[in-house]
């Protein structure tokens, strides 16, 4: 038996990176997947976002595990689109048990008082309002199922600790903690657990790009991501450069599974000791 055998998981931002990894890891342990991703560029995001081909790759990898997946191009900022994607998935698979609100963006590289209005708005809209939309669309299905459930919100190590020059990101990710705690309290009577995960730097396309290199090496003119490696290492207490997507997926899987049946309202760091440094 898999650890989430027979369950259905809704994963946002599932086209690549951590979201794809969560979909695959949950499918490996027996879940069917409802996946969404915007698969389009948002103009204030300074690195390439996912494509429809990326989402198609996630579909192939989940199906290769003999699990079912329904993947839809949808923007978490658009509540109606999120709601209809969840409804279509639940209509097909007959239930919903697990929610991974993972979709997110990053951008900017200025002190907080110089952040552009539109960049601030886009980050709050995706990384906080989008997470709320995901929960809001899913919760009625979890309650109606009567089987409890597990909602895992992706925050960040920067959701528990300040980081300079990305005030919109840090603010949204701290906001996710308030959202998580409130929903944990409200949903406990239904046996629905709500937790957040807080990764340190994860080896995904959000990190593997020139913008991230510039954020972490403002002292260099045209830094490469390799130039930022020593800074990444210096963030972590453990002597590692970064974690892999599957390290976060394993935390999501644990929170989704019955092994964590009495864990709710918890901020789970997968941060190599970033938070204690
Ligand atoms: N990579 C890191 O170092 C790191 C660290 C801590 C937290 N996080 C968080 O982890 C989550 C996953 O990021 P990742 O590292 O896999 O990055 P990523 O850029 O590889 O993946 C993010 C995915 O979300 C999708 N997405 C973005 N905006 C969307 C929207 N409006 N609607 C639907 N889908 C949307 C993207 O298209 C992409 O497929 C994000 O919330 C991110 O903030 C990342």
Describe the structure.
By secondary structure, the protein is an alpha/beta fold. It has helices at about 15-30, 50-65, 80-95, 115-145, 165-185, 210-215, 230-235, 245-255; strands spanning about 10, 30-35, 70-75, 100, 150-155, 190-200, 265-270. It has a seven-stranded parallel β-sheet, sandwiched between helices. Helix 1 (about 15-30) links the parallel strand 1 (about 10) and strand 2 (about 30-35). The N and C termini lie far apart (about 40 Å). The mean pLDDT is about 100. The structure holds nicotinamide-adenine-dinucleotide.
Features:
alpha/beta; 42% helix; globular; binds nicotinamide-adenine-dinucleotide
Number of helices: 8
Largest sheet: 7 strands, parallel
The N- and C-terminal alpha carbons lie at a distance of 39 Å
Task: Report strand order across the widest sheet.
Answer: 3-2-1-4-5-6-7
Radius of gyration: 18 Å
* Arithmetic mean of pLDDT: 98
Kindly estimate the percentage of residues that lie in beta strands according to DSSP: 5-15%
Low-pLDDT runs of 5+ residues are none
Named once each, the bound ligands are: nicotinamide-adenine-dinucleotide
Which H/E pattern describes the elements? EHEHEHEHEHEHHHE
Share in helix: 40-55%
Number of strands: 7
> What structural class is derived from the secondary structure elements?
alpha/beta
Choose one word for the global shape: globular
